[in-house]
Amino acid sequence: MPGFTLLVALFLIGVIARSNLIATAACLLLIIKLAKLNFIFPFLEKRGLELGLLFLLLSILVPVATGRITEREMLYNLTSLPGLLALFGGALATHLNGEGLRLLQLQPEIIFGLVTGSIIGIVFLGGVPVGPLMAAGITALFMELASWLKN
User: What is the average per-residue pLDDT within 98-119?
Assistant: First the structure.
């Protein structure tokens, strides 16, 4: 069964590294695969990222919805040095995420290295696994730098 061994490996790595997100994702994909619900894979591949980002944005915007962050605070933060740096950081991050998405579309096999690197970051660097997209973006940047240095 293609992909089964890699999904089991990712599940085990997730469990060993105490990364519930990786373990759960691999487990859900294994269940879909074993239940022969293969029609779900194209939907997840096409819309899974959007759904994940939707839930991420919902969780981030809760303080706005509950009124813990006011319009005045947001306006001040957009005009302060931290706010301006956040604008630059957000723009750079979304650019890198776009590059990462392109890399994952062109070379989907790179995901295993990204996940393994993320786990190393979690275990040894105290990192937080927010997903492979930023890791792919940084990898795309490194690949471009390596290509530039090579020439």
Answer: 87
Cβ–Cβ under 8 Å, residues 118 and 129: yes
Q: Is 5 helix (H, G, I), strand (E, B) or coil?
A: helix
Cβ partners under 8 Å of residue 48, min gap 6: none
C-alpha to C-alpha distance for 119 and 128, rounded to whole angstroms: 9
Number of domains in the chain: 1
Query: Over the stretch 26-60, which tens digit does the pLDDT of each residue have?
Result: 999 999 999 999 999 999 988 887 888 888 889 98
Q: Please report whether residue 20 resides in a domain.
A: no
pLDDT of residue 19: 77
Q: Bigger pLDDT: 116 or 27?
A: 27
Q: Give me the phi and psi of 65, to 5 degrees please.
A: -65, -35
Residue 125: domain span = 70-151
Contacts of 10 (CB under 8 A, 6+ apart): 22, 25, 26, 112, 115
Q: How far apart are CA 53 and CA 47, in angstroms?
A: 10
Residue 40 in tokens: 């779900």
Mean pLDDT for the chain overall? 88
